[in-house]
Fold:
Amino acid sequence: MDWNIFQTAGGRWWAINRRADHAHLTRNACVCVASLDADDLGGLTVLLAQQGACHPLVAA
Structure:
């Protein structure tokens, strides 16, 4: 998936899915999401990896 990753002024990390056509697809009880957020970059990395592992066919 294609993600825009940024940190807010408050320090929270976000990833916004640029592929809106993939957001909310379901596969193997997982849902592709339009956005992710985490307290730190490491946490966001984990969430992004989970999205990629859950949806390998749309991860490219």
Notes: Strands lie at 3-7, 13-17, 26-27, 30-31, 35-38. The chain has a mean pLDDT of 81.
